[in-house]
Design brief:
By secondary structure, the chain is of the alpha/beta class. It folds into 2 domains: 129 residues, DNAb Helicase, Chain A (Orthogonal Bundle); 267 residues, Rossmann fold. It has 19 helices and 9 strands. A 9-stranded mixed sheet has the order 3-2-4-5-1-6-7-8-9, with helices on both faces. Strand 4, helix 15 and strand 5 form a beta-alpha-beta unit. The chain is elongated, with a radius of gyration of 26 Å. The two termini are 45 Å apart.
Length: 424
């Protein structure tokens, strides 16, 4: 259940005082103004911190007496769940956004009240200054970044997490924190199988990963991982794994092994952008370094803007969250039907369905092109693919068509349908 703004304020204050965490909320960009329901208390906290005094119950008690101190004690007894610290950034964002909305509402209300007499130029200037004032918290001098860069240089944390699959690791350098990577293809090309293979390569190194599925059930996802361990999908499709015997025994043994992977699954459908944001914060709180979302076009739109505008808002938010949560986000996306109209069926960036913002906001865009699918349908000839595209029937082209900080390229993978698996 969504908590109120006032409750969010009380939770953050209780956390700060109980954990000597003033530096944490200041680094998140919180100011005393972000605590309108507890403004006098927030002023005390920030003043104590400015004086170099630890913000604690003892130091605060010197500022509040009698009934006021009783109210302080009640405030500091606010209950915090055990994952609150991991979600601190999320709660701080709530206060900052609500404060910004409140300030904007006041500014707008003032303009409308004096609409007949207002000076247009002066009013435009007010709105411009408002935007500037709410956007200065992240400005830093390059000199102040020196120590951070040295720490990153010597930290394993800053290295790309390798999946052990060269068709991804070589062009990307691995899964790097803060990156939004879009994997796009037409239906049946193997987008889900591809990203699950990447996650498996990470999880076998005990790297926690998350999978947000807007299409498949959690049972289907588990079965996918079982098949990836060389268990024949035909046995599951024909329900032979339910019959007593060696097939069922093999299934159960494989299930037991798969369920040791550090994977967090969120199965949902028809969710909006804000719900996806909550899910990512939750995955982050569980230690996930990489999260895949399957897939973009299944995120519910509010309908008050064009599809292009809403998709653009989603991808901008996901890129922002990748940076904020220090994780890699894989975003699966459908391609438009324009691909089918071409003789060679090769995808391009213009085929990204619904919005050019997908390309703009992604650090990498990877296309999957599996000619066997079109050859089997009779819409492509194997000879044409071999002579003109340099691909064999059983090969999948992994096409990197955007690579911020790296080279575009095409590598080769092999798809095993009955095992939902890409290999080198």
């Amino acid at each position: 259940m969504k908590i109120s703004n006032k409750e969010t304020q009380s939770k953050i204050i209780a956390y700060v005082v109980g954990n000597n965490a003033m530096n944490e909320i200041i680094s998140e960009g919180l100011r005393k103004e972000h605590f309108p329901d507890y403004l006098s208390f927030a002023e005390v906290m920030y003043n104590l911190h400015a004086e170099g005094i630890i913000v604690s119950l003892d130091s605060i008690s010197t500022k509040f007496k009698g009934k006021a101190f009783v109210e302080v004690l009640e405030l500091l007894q606010t209950k915090l769940d055990f994952m609150f610290k991991s979600n601190l950034s999320y709660y701080c964002d709530i206060l900052k956004q609500d404060y910004k909305k409140s300030e904007f509402k006041n500014l707008l209300s003032s303009s409308l009240t004096n609409f007949e007499t207002l000076d247009i130029q002066e009013e435009v200037s007010k709105y411009s200054n408002f935007e500037k004032e709410t956007s200065t918290q992240t400005i830093k001098t390059i000199e102040s970044l020196e120590s951070k860069m040295i720490d990153l240089l010597n930290s394993e944390k800053s290295r790309g997490l390798k999946t052990s699959l060269d068709f991804f690791d070589k062009p990307s350098g691995g899964c790097k924190r803060g990156k939004l990577i879009t994997i796009a293809a037409r239906p049946a090309m193997g987008k889900t199988a591809f990203v699950l293979c990447l996650l498996e390569g990470l999880m076998t190194q005990n790297i926690p990963c998350g999978f947000i599925s807007l299409e498949m059930t959690e049972e289907e996802i588990v079965d996918r991982f079982i098949c990836m361990q060389n268990f024949d999908n035909d046995f599951i499709r024909e329900e032979k794994h339910r019959e007593e015997g060696p097939i069922k025994k093999d299934y159960l043994n494989t299930l037991s092994m798969v369920c040791t992977l550090p994977l967090f699954i969120d199965e949902d459908s028809g969710v909006h952008k804000n719900k996806i944001k909550e899910k990512l914060y939750s995955m982050h709180s569980k230690g996930c370094k990489v999260v895949a979302i399957d897939y973009l076009q299944l995120i519910a739109l509010k309908g008050n803007k064009t599809t292009t505008e809403e998709i653009g808002e989603i991808t901008r938010e996901l890129k922002s969250l990748a940076k904020k949560l220090d994780m890699t986000i894989f975003l699966l996306s459908q391609l438009s039907r324009e691909v089918e109209k071409r003789k060679d069926k090769l995808p391009t960036l213009s085929d990204l369905r619904s919005s050019g913002d997908i390309e703009q906001d992604s650090d990498m865009v990877i296309f999957l092109y599996r000619p066997a699918y079109y050859i089997d349908k009779g819409s492509l000839e194997a000879g044409f693919v071999s002579q003109n595209l340099g691909l064999e029937y059983d090969q999948t082209a992994v096409i990197v068509d955007k690579n911020r900080g790296g080279q575009n390229c095409r590598t080769i993978a092999y798809f095993e349908g009955k095992h939902y698996k890409f290999s080198e």
